Predict the 3D structure of the following.
Amino acid sequence: MSTSAQRPDPAGTVYRRPGATRPRLPRDPLTWVAVFISAAGLLLGGFFVLGGPGGDGTPAVPAVAATPSTGASTPAGQEPPAPPTVTVSSPTATPPAEGASSPPTIPTGPTAFRQVASSRCLGVDGDGAQAPARLLDCRGDDPRQRWLPNAIGSGLVSLVNQASNMCLDVEGPNAADGARLQQYPCHGEANQQWQLVPSAGGQVLIAALYSGRCAYPDGGRRDAGTEIRQITCVDAPDQQWQFG
């Protein structure tokens, strides 16, 4: 009689097949390394999904480095440096030449211009345009010898003849020495603009703005009828004129 027939097995008893072996853990070291790496990967993945130590599920945001300012910074507690101060030197006035007097007052009405060297007056010979300016014997009642200094700014005047209402004009216009002076309808150009330059003796030089030259009798002559021309200014008696 067999043992199985004599003792019934309790319910749920499992028998191995004859010759079957019990499962064992792997002995290969490489297999253990692979298992360890897989487990570590699972743990790290869960850590990042849960958001790290906070555990609130929000991904961690890396800190952003502050961008430095483009301007220079001032240390705390110190005042910013003041901007540099620009110093501008004041111009120094040039003293007047020795013997020079104060500028004479320019008349506001018609006046004569009497030459110092000859005591003759600046006038015009004729009534029309281009009538030449000449040195004439002074006659207080002759309007051809009287001129109105009409201020036009910056120390300049036009000289308007009382008889013709025309202006003293450099013919041409011409900037050279020897160009003659004449009367011509007023147009306000530079060859009709004059500067009454104070001279050393208290008189004036009649200087043309256009050329920078001065009125004087042709050749320095002093006789009546001599044409008035322009020449380089030298503040000599034949270029000096008095009002009145």
